[in-house]
């Protein structure tokens, strides 16, 4: 089994009309055994920037701690929050530093940039950025997620529609992957508010 | 086939571990205590390679004590768990420790808590956790019978159920177990569950 499939994860981010949504599954496993069904994979960096970390849980936790540290330093020096594009470049640089001994993580970054324009991107474990205008996926269920998102996505969805779409895409994809699932965690972010919802899907 | 498991009850946390010290097919001793008292209100049940287990848990115990000497107040359970994770994570890509840890503690402000810390430094706060081959049986029993806010008698009864399952279903089941508890009055040994007693060697 690949090291990326040791803990199991599913992550997806989608762009809507002046908003974005980012969703993850909730399983923490050790290969075939499920340890917990409430594991957090999406972290908030600042009011309008979220990062989800798929892959090996220990590296996701280490990477998150390093990124929060770097962002807090940035906030102290620049006296403002980082733009999502800048943060994505930071994550890419941090990952490429470990080019020959990488963190086994795939980040999914979603944020509202200048004039609250939604920004999403993903990258591989050594920091190759992949910008997209519609959706990005990561994790053990990524192949199913690509299919589900491609079929269900429409541009310029309102927050409620976006929530429905991303939830359906996530739940139907993790149902085809034994290593991810046990519910879902969805954040829908607009310029004025952040809505966090827990999904109940197939608990198996 | 080391078995460690633990659970959180009403204002207490319980950790149970087997007590055999084994090298390949030989059982060196059957009363090896694998649950270390980190400080007055913390228990660390550890399983894994014998040398690493003792060295690493003693290192954590001494550093927890050092913090209390330097700062005049003890670490919280969450802080101790994150410190342990940090040490495991730093060593992971240099000289990894093969130790799985269940860290149970009681804090005045937040009550009892249990942390699952993998040998690759993934940490997660759980209500019930287990390591080793015994986890297949103990986690299943706890999934069936565990409720939140159990009393000490109910929790020990559940632990006994798990021990019975391990003894009857695991091919190289360890004969003896130790149960330790931590609550507002501190961390202490609760009892042993022995099927084999070491014979006393008469004094020369």
UniProtKB/TrEMBL annotation, chain A:
PANTHER family associated with the record: METALLOPROTEASE TLDD, PROTEASOME SUBUNIT BETA TYPE-3
Alphabetical GO CC annotations of the entry are: cytoplasm; nucleus; proteasome core complex, beta-subunit complex
The subcellular localization recorded is: Cytoplasm; Nucleus
Stored SUPFAM superfamilies: N-terminal nucleophile aminohydrolases (Ntn hydrolases)
Q: Relate the protein's function as given in its record.
A: Non-catalytic component of the proteasome, a multicatalytic proteinase complex which is characterized by its ability to cleave peptides with Arg, Phe, Tyr, Leu, and Glu adjacent to the leaving group at neutral or slightly basic pH. The proteasome has an ATP-dependent proteolytic activity.
- Subcellular location, principal: cytoplasm
Could you identify this protein by its name?
A: Proteasome subunit beta
Q: Which Pfam families match?
A: Proteasome
Q: Which InterPro entries does the UniProt record give?
A: Ntn_hydrolases_N, Proteasome_beta_3, Proteasome_bsu_CS, Proteasome_sua/b, Proteasome_suB-type
Q: Name one GO biological process term.
A: proteasome-mediated ubiquitin-dependent protein catabolic process
Q: Indicate the quaternary assembly.
A: Component of the proteasome complex.
Q: Which CDD domains match?
A: proteasome_beta_type_3 (cd03759)
Supply the alphabetized keyword list.
Answer: Cytoplasm, Nucleus, Proteasome
Q: Which family does it belong to?
A: Belongs to the peptidase T1B family.
Q: Which PROSITE patterns match?
A: PROTEASOME_BETA_1, PROTEASOME_BETA_2
TrEMBL record, chain B:
Q: Which domain of life is it from?
A: Eukaryota
Using the UniProt record, give the first listed, main subcellular location: cytoplasm
Where does the secretion signal sit in this chain?
Answer: none
Q: How is this protein annotated for GO cellular component?
A: cytoplasm; nucleus; proteasome core complex
GO BP terms, alphabetized: proteasomal protein catabolic process
Q: Per UniProt, which keywords does this protein have? A: Cytoplasm, Nucleus, Proteasome
Q: Does the keyword Acetylation apply?
A: no
Q: Which cell locations does it reside in?
A: Cytoplasm; Nucleus
| Family named by the database record | Belongs to the peptidase T1B family.
Q: Subunit composition?
A: Component of the proteasome complex. Component of the 20S core complex of the 26S proteasome. The 26S proteasome is composed of a core protease (CP), known as the 20S proteasome, capped at one or both ends by the 19S regulatory particle (RP/PA700). The 20S proteasome core is composed of 28 subunits that are arranged in four stacked rings, resulting in a barrel-shaped structure. The two end rings are each formed by seven alpha subunits, and the two central rings are each formed by seven beta subunits. The catalytic chamber with the active sites is on the inside of the barrel.
| Its biological purpose | Non-catalytic component of the proteasome, a multicatalytic proteinase complex which is characterized by its ability to cleave peptides with Arg, Phe, Tyr, Leu, and Glu adjacent to the leaving group at neutral or slightly basic pH. The proteasome has an ATP-dependent proteolytic activity.
**What is the protein named?**
Proteasome subunit beta
Native source species: Nyssa sinensis
Q: What is the lineage of its organism?
A: Eukaryota, Viridiplantae, Streptophyta, Embryophyta, Tracheophyta
